[in-house]
Amino acid sequence: MANGKSLLLGVLFGSVVGASVSLLTTPSSGEELRSKVKDQSERLRDIAQQIREDGLDLKNQLTQTSKEGAALLKDLSQDIKVSIESWKETIEPHQENLQEHLKHIEESIKELEDKLKDDSKHNV
After folding, report:
1. ∠ at Cα 11 (26, 62), nearest 5°?
2. Would you call 12 exposed, middle or buried from its count of C-beta atoms within 10 A (0-12, 13-18, 19+)?
3. Which InterPro entries does this chain map to (predicted)?
4. Rounded Cα–Cα distance for residues 5 and 100 (Å)
5. CA dist., res. 75 & res. 108, Å (int)
6. Are residues 87 and 79 in contact, defined by beta-carbon separation less than 8 angstroms?
7. Mean pLDDT taken over the chain
8. Is the dihedral of CA 111, 112, 118, 122 positive or negative?
9. How many domains does the chain have?
10. Please, are residues 40 and 19 in contact by the beta-carbon 8 Å criterion?
11. Cα–Cα nearest to 33, from 45, 44, 41, 24
C-alpha cells in the first residue's frame, strides 16, 4: 500500500508543479491568473477526490477478492481431501488382493528354490 501512497503523492505533486509552471509562465492579468488558479485548484481537488475514490474501490475489490480466494482454497482443499479418502476406500480392497498375490508368489518362489536345491543334491 506504500507504493500506492507514493504514486498518489507523486501524481498530486506533479500536477501542482505543472499547473503552477503553466500559470506562471503564461502572460495574463491578475484577475485571469486568479481565475485560472481557482479553476486549476478545483480541477486538482476533483482529480484527488477521484483518485481517492478509485483507491478505496481498489482496496475493497482486493479485500473481496482475497476473501473469495481464501474461501475457494478452503473448498478446494476440502474437495481434495474427500477425493483422497474416496480413492483410499477404492484402492484398499485391491491392496489386500495384491498383498495376497504377492504372498502366493513368494511361496511359489520359495517352493521352486527348495525344489532346485533338492534337484541339485540328487544330481551331484
Report:
1. 155
2. middle
3. Desiccation-related_membrane, YtxH
4. 68
5. 49
6. no
7. 83
8. positive
9. 1
10. yes
11. 24
- Could you tell me the residue range of the domain that residue 93 belongs to? 2-123
Cell of 56: 478505496
In tens, the pLDDT along 74-90 reads: 999 999 999 999 988 88
Quote the CA–CA distance of 122 and 119 in Å, as a whole number: 5
Contact present, 37 and 23 (Cβ < 8 Å)? yes
CB neighbour list of residue 11: distance below 8 Å, 6 or more residues apart: 47, 51
Pick the closest to residue 47 from 24, 15, 21, 19 (CA basis): 15
Phi/psi for 29 (5° steps) reads: -75, 170
